[in-house]
Recover the amino acids of this structure.
DNA sequence: TTGTAGGCGTTATCAG
DNA sequence: CTGATAACGCCTACAA
């Protein structure tokens, strides 16, 4: 593998000049520029971005930490950050935590050792030690799908409480009074916890007694949704509607209900959260709370670059979420 | 940010020793080891993996190039890759080509400049210049979702021709004679092309005339599938069944058919390709050709590491694909 | 078991 | 506009 030195020798110039034709061609005479270009061709010269990063202390790489790329909503935000990074010629290293805190911890460390310029994190817990530590050390990062509304860190998210409230309110207005919630475990997702708060408050505001048996927590998976709903439905006095804390769970819930012989939506109304692409491709089309995942990724990335350049104070961006009414919810039976 | 030198000074040892406690602790006396550990704590020392990569010429990073992370099948193989890489303490940089060749080209270049140790590529065209070039220069890489069966490169894939044949055969056996194909554009996917070959051969083997109007190519998207099927269905003499070259298209096709008032599966049988997770969560559950995406990613990564260590000759691994019959296909009407 | 010293490929500073 | 040259942080013979 040839280096700048090889090119320089061959072109009869110094390495400094070669470096210049690469980084600021306009500062070198056209003639020499071409001479160097020719030499590079001959040497089959390949630029070494690692060496560059080593001296400039900028790797032009950012780390993206998410729970799992298999949830389409994270795939969407991921492409948002990739697209933004791409247009700035930045690469992104992707890491899955699978909702495990230790993994989040180790990923942060590894990525920092790799000298990423910044971190985009969808954290299981925004108040954890990893995050605190990042703040203390002034390392550039921004939280995605954040539940944080103020403080000394940058984040972008939506109002999860409100989303939960909206979803539940929709169900209440349809006449439902037994409303279950299939939630992602609160221990692995603060978002889920916030949504539950909204759900609960809405129930309260409508004088509907809260029944703790109607809350089932599970891991955030299709099977988790299926099992949760089955559990609820097999209890005495089952719900007529269920709010799922994401679409992924909701899709699973649909399957679970059907396996128990329920007709959808007549026998059970279901509302999800996220509005992933396929939500409107299933039958019945899923009523859900839309959150702008792609934009969140894009915006988060943009914010991160501002952090890296230290040209911004900490801000918490709250994006709009909205209820999308489709066919999976209907009036309460009877 | 403190360096090894700071630590060394503080501990009263040389940088070599510090380096040793990091990379081969067993070669240094317990006492000094602890002394160094303490010093690292005090300095809040952070290891610089970039500098290390610079000297060892190993970045412990690989590049993963896929069409788009938004297709769940690629998300699955991606997590296969990540999981394997993770257990070897390797990071993966992810890049989307969006099925564009130029993007594939530029990604390969950028990632090589970043000194990735190897590349995992889901190529739009395995016979293109980028790939040839990689071979010529002996750069370690392996193709994922490969259609290549022999040659001087490593790859893992399935027999797409056979998959296409199987899918079509299933439809024929159900009595269908007007069988359409909603394909991903051949220009962006050799896989789609192979599947079409299988489809066509199967038709031929059963003496069913090939009707070119029944082939509709589109980009690989939900809307692509929807539009394709609508186009077919609105023609004179529409098909009674359609083979979609992936599940993503199939999901879109379901929606398209319904929008035209078709009942599924009575009025139209649909078979997909991939068997993504949600395929069995939609109604009717999707009949499809299963390909082991997660395993493919994992295996591809494993193969890549062997390539990197140069402890393997080029091999093309062909994984099993199989027809999964579910509810989206039924006997031809009439 | 530990230290010395050279080198990895590039950029940046300062002259010229 | 171009050239010398000193970093950058770490690894690795080689020596002690």
């Amino acid at each position: 593998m040839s280096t700048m030195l090889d090119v320089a020798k061959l072109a009869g110039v110094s390495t400094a000049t070669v470096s210049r034709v690469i980084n600021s061609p306009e500062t070198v005479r056209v003639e020499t520029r071409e001479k160097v270009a020719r030499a590079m061709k001959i040497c089959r010269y390949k630029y070494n971005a690692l060496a560059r990063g080593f001296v400039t202390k900028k790797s032009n790489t950012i780390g993206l930490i998410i729970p799992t790329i298999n949830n389409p909503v994270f795939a969407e935000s991921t492409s948002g950050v990739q697209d933004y990074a791409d247009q700035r010629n930045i690469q992104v290293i992707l890491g899955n935590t699978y909702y495990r805190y230790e993994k989040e911890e180790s990923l942060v460390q590894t990525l920092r050792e790799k000298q990423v310029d910044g971190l985009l994190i969808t954290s299981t817990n925004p108040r954890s030690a990893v995050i605190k530590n990042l703040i203390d050390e002034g390392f550039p990062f921004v939280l995605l799908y954040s539940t944080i509304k103020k403080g000394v860190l940058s984040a972008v998210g939506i109002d999860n409480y409100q989303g939960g409230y909206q979803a539940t309110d929709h169900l209440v207005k349809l006449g439902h009074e037994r409303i279950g919630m299939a939630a992602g475990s609160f221990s692995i997702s603060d978002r889920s916890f916030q949504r539950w708060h909204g759900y609960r408050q809405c129930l309260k505001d409508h004088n509907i007694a809260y029944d703790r048996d109607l809350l089932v927590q599970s891991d955030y998976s299709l099977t988790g949704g299926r099992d949760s709903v089955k559990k609820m439905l097999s209890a005495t006095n089952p719900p007529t509607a269920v709010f799922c804390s994401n679409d992924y769970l909701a899709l699973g819930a649909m399957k679970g209900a059907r396996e128990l012989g329920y007709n959808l939506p007549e026998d059970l109304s279901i509302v999800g959260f996220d509005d992933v692409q396929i939500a409107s491709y299933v039958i019945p089309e899923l009523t859900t709370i839309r959150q702008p995942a792609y934009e969140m990724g894009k915006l988060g990335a943009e914010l991160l670059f501002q952090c890296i350049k230290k040209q911004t104070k900490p801000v918490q961006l709250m994006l709009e979420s909205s209820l999308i009414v489709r066919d999976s919810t209907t009036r309460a039976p009877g």
